Predict the structure.
Amino acid sequence: MRTIYLIGFMGSGKSTVGLALAEKLNKTYVDTDQFIIETHQREIADIFSTDGEGVFRDYEIDALKKVSNYEVVSTGGGIVEKSENLQTMQKNGLIFYLHASFQEIVNRLKQDKTRPLWNNNIEDKLNLYNRRIKRYKKYADHMIHTDGRALEEIVQEIENYIIN
Ligand code: S3P
């Protein structure tokens, strides 16, 4: 069995879709952010503010390797920042990119205060988004549009891809 990895920008629905997919297919599920929080007993915002993004990325590389035995894995939006992570995912499974438009992300994360990289101005957010989506598209085995679509539809699309 190959692991199903969900990648995509913050707020693209990776955790919601991952959990729903795993429940529907009766598969084991983990979220790398949650794995890091539990392993280090710290919130992500605390890791960023106390130790910096570099330390978080090291924790993330390690977490991704350690969750290779899970069947469905939701990743953090920055997982594509490190080529080591891409190798881990390509070697071990299939990569699904959940695509949401920038406007949709802005709407979904309007009230969000928990994400350290979503605390800056709109230009920086857009730059990060544009830089990241090039990588998501490049490394995904399959890209799924999520704007205006129901959770069940998205889950079904992944299921169809796996079966075929
Ligand atoms: C990050 C995304 C977050 C989390 C951290 C960094 C990023 O995960 O890993 O705040 O660099 O895009 P979500 O994509 O689940 O919000």
